[in-house]
Write a structure and sequence with these properties.
It is a single chain. The chain is of the alpha/beta class and 239 residues long. It starts with a strand and ends with a strand. Helix content is 44%, strand content 15%.
C-alpha cells in the first residue's frame, strides 16, 4: 500500500472533492505494516504547479511538473510509471532482471502497491529534506532556464537529487537515497541477498564517481568518499 502524506497546499492542489477529498486521518486509523509513506510538497514555479514526492525511509525523491488542479489521479499514474520504470531500469542494468521477467514483476508490483490513499499529514524530519530538495530543484531550473517536463527530463533531476547525502535519526550513518531505494527493491522484490545487494550498490557508487569525474583526468576518488553541496535558495512559491 502507498500512503501519500500531503502538505496543506499539496492537498489543496490534488484534492478533487467529493471523489478524492484529502484530510487529516483519525489518530486510530490502521496502517498496514508494509505500507510505504511518501510525503508530497507542492510549489509553483513561473506559475506552473509542481509536486515533489519523497519516501520517508529512504528519502528517495521524484519531481512532477505541470500537475493539474484536482490531479490526484494524474499524479498517482505518473508516480507509478516513473517509480516502477526507474527501479526496473536499475534491476536490468545490474543483471537482476530480464526483459521476459518484467510483465510478471509489474503485475506483482501493481497488486502490492495498487492500493493507496491521500491524507494531509506532516513530518518534520522528512519535510526538512523535502525543503532541501525543493531548493535544489529551483537551483536546477534556474541553471537550465526552464522547468523539466515529462519523465525523461524530470528523471534527470531525480537522479541528481537522489545522489545526495542524507542523515536521519533512524539511520546510524549518512546514506544516499538511490542506494537505500535500490536496496529495498533488490531485497524485497527480487529476492537478492543483503550482501549481494550491498556489493552491487558499492559497485554502482564507484561507477557514478567515475562518470562524475570523467572530465577531470588524474583524480583518484576513493570508493568510500562522497561529497554533497547544498544549493543556494531560489525564488519560488513554497507550499
Amino acid at each position: 500500500m502507498l500512503i501519500f502524506n500531503c502538505s496543506k497546499d499539496a492537498a489543496r492542489l490534488l484534492a478533487d472533492p467529493p471523489q478524492q477529498p484529502i484530510a487529516r486521518p483519525a489518530a486510530d486509523t490502521p496502517v498496514p505494516e508494509d505500507a510505504l509513506h511518501w510525503h508530497l510538497s507542492a510549489v509553483a514555479i513561473n506559475g506552473i504547479p509542481c509536486v515533489l514526492a519523497m519516501e520517508a525511509r529512504s528519502r528517495y525523491c521524484m519531481v512532477f511538473t505541470d500537475v493539474p488542479e484536482g490531479g490526484w489521479r494524474y499524479l498517482f499514474e505518473e508516480f507509478h510509471q516513473r517509480w516502477f520504470n526507474q527501479m526496473i531500469e536499475m534491476a536490468l542494468h545490474g543483471g537482476f532482471l530480464s526483459e521476459t521477467e518484467i510483465p510478471p514483476m509489474l503485475e506483482r508490483l501493481h497488486q502490492a502497491h495498487g492500493e493507496f490513499c491521500f491524507v494531509q499529514r506532516h513530518d518534520n524530519s522528512v519535510n526538512t529534506h523535502l525543503n532541501h530538495a525543493l531548493d535544489s530543484f529551483c537551483y536546477w531550473c534556474e541553471d537550465l532556464g526552464d522547468l523539466p517536463f515529462g519523465h525523461g527530463q524530470c528523471s534527470a533531476f531525480d537522479e541528481h537529487v537522489n545522489d545526495t547525502l542524507r542523515k536521519t535519526r533512524v539511520h546510524k550513518d549518512y546514506f544516499v537515497p538511490i542506494e537505500e531505494m535500490s536496496h529495498y527493491w533488490l531485497t524485497t522484490w527480487l529476492g537478492v541477498s543483503d550482501q549481494t545487494a550491498r556489493s552491487y550498490i558499492r559497485a554502482s557508487y564507484r561507477e557514478r564517481m567515475q562518470q562524475r569525474f570523467a572530465d577531470a583526468p588524474g583524480l583518484n576518488i576513493p570508493a568510500t568518499e562522497a561529497t554533497s553541496a547544498a544549493p543556494p535558495p531560489a525564488n519560488k512559491t513554497r507550499h
